[in-house]
Hints:
binds zinc ion; 139 residues; two-stranded antiparallel sheet; alpha+beta; 2 helices
Amino acid sequence: MNDTATTADPRSNGPAARHNAHGHPCPPWCVTDHSEQRHGPSAGYHGSESPLIHTPSGYVNATAYQNGFSDDEPQIAVTCLNGPAGCLMTAVRDAGFLAATVEDLAEATPEQHREFAAAIRQAAAVITGAEDPEAWAFR
Ligand SMILES: [Zn+2]
């Protein structure tokens, strides 16, 4: 925890409220060390603690996220080390569906995983009119 990102509330005897460097209040689940965030597009975000799940090719992770500069709803940030830079942002209302999909894949073969990935790229190609679904591949 970062003690420098707190504001003492003289009206309260409880713990001081935490906030990021821009004064945006931390949600109760935020464990981000805001003293480390001073620059860049992600400066000031609020994040939860979550484990890195190590895989043969890297790791995956899912964490609570709020951008730290608006009243936008918190989201689930899904990250994959061997994938593209950034993460997949998912609405909290979709978290159960995403988790069920991932659990269903637990019984799938590697080839079925690749088929599913190709189906996702194909769906994007259909929507955008791209001739090559592999244009959506991150390699
Ligand atoms: Zn925070």
